[in-house]
Amino acid sequence: QVYVVFSEELKCWCRALVESVWCQADGYQLGCFLVDYAKYCSVASKNIRVLAGAFGKIPHRAKKCRLHCTKPLTLHIDYCENTAKIGPARRWDTAAIQHFRKLIE
């Protein structure tokens, strides 16, 4: 379900999908995906609203997607043997993400 949340970073109300909820000392925090900006953000529970009927029917500008059969790689450095090899990784490196975004632009 899509909600409306206030993004502190963007300084505006945005449509969002709530992906996670966790408790903090001052209340609940929500992990959200902004469907019109393709960004993830954390929002306080006081900054979430139910989406009004007509606005819920507007198509999302951003969609979550994945690269088919593409696995993250990283450079493994062995200082003892003075070698470097590319191998599998659990997550994408920041440099790889930035390079991919530049290719898309």
UniProtKB/TrEMBL annotation:
Q: What is its EC number?
A: 3.6.4.13
Single GO molecular function = RNA helicase activity
Alphabetical list of SUPFAM superfamilies matching this protein: Tudor/PWWP/MBT
Give the catalysed reaction(s), semicolon-separated: ATP + H2O = ADP + phosphate + H(+)
GO biological process entries: germ-line stem cell division
- Which InterPro entries does this UniProt record tie to the protein? SNase_OB-fold_sf (IPR035437), Tudor (IPR002999)
Keywords of the record? ATP-binding, Helicase, Hydrolase, Nucleotide-binding, Repeat
Q: What is this protein called?
A: RNA helicase
Gene this chain is encoded by: Tdrd12
Database matches in Gene3D superfamilies? 2.40.50.90
Q: Where is the Tudor domain?
A: 3-68
Xref: Pfam families: TUDOR
* Lineage, uppermost ranks: Eukaryota, Metazoa, Chordata, Craniata, Vertebrata
